[in-house]
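Homework help board

Subject: predicted structure for assignment chain

Our instructor gave us this sequence and asked us to write out the predicted structure in token form, then describe one feature. I got the tokens but I'm not sure how to describe them. Can anyone check?
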Amino acid sequence: MTVAYDGSPFRGFATNPDVRTVQDDLEAALATVLRRPTPTTCAGRTDRGVHARGQVVSFDADAAHVDAFALTRALNRMLAPHITVRDVALAANDFDARFSCIGRTYRYRILNAPTPDPLVHHLVWHVREPLDLAPMQLAADRILGEHDFTTFSKRNKSKQNETFVRTVERAVWGQTGATVQLEIRANAFTHQMVRSLVGMFVEIGRGRRPAVDMGHALQALDRSAAPSPAPPQGLVFERAHYHGHD
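My token output:
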């Protein structure tokens, strides 16, 4: 399935006891339609308040007894308006939404204006100070390629041998009207990596740090070398990439 959702009412994608999550809502709907428990796997676990336009979710079902169009329609009747199943398709037996994924693309949107906009407040980070995109792009160029993103990652204490090495293939800042946005693609992302990078980019765009500080922060391998992460509502998981479907 390709799934889109407004992350505002959810405590992230992954199932979590006693709170509402995207995965729990999806699996409850699937269980109702398919009449059996249906575990799912996603391409990228999004955090609380983070949105998705192109989340990919895989699950097992008897293809001979599943009509993709009817399933899509039934799920959307149950899941709207916060979750939409954009399409359902048959995949190879060995396909896994997470482990078959070769890349992920995110966008982060900033409303760079003197006053906030109540109609999009749940979709953007409002930054009042004018942002200079030129040094922000210089800083973005410094994260291209393979790097250890320890400085920009939230550690999971239960994973002692966790690695933070990732390969960034694209990082581009652009602007349309008052909306400034980052498009970033990597083979994978660490926990809070995009939001932490955006926090640094905005400090640079505000003129509080030079662009070279991005390189210094990467080399520090120290979480304290980066500012606080950007808020979650500006982040959207745009697309999961797979061999033969890029």
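Reply (TA_rk): Your tokens look well-formed. For the description, you could write something like this. The mean pLDDT is 96. That's the kind of observation they're looking for.
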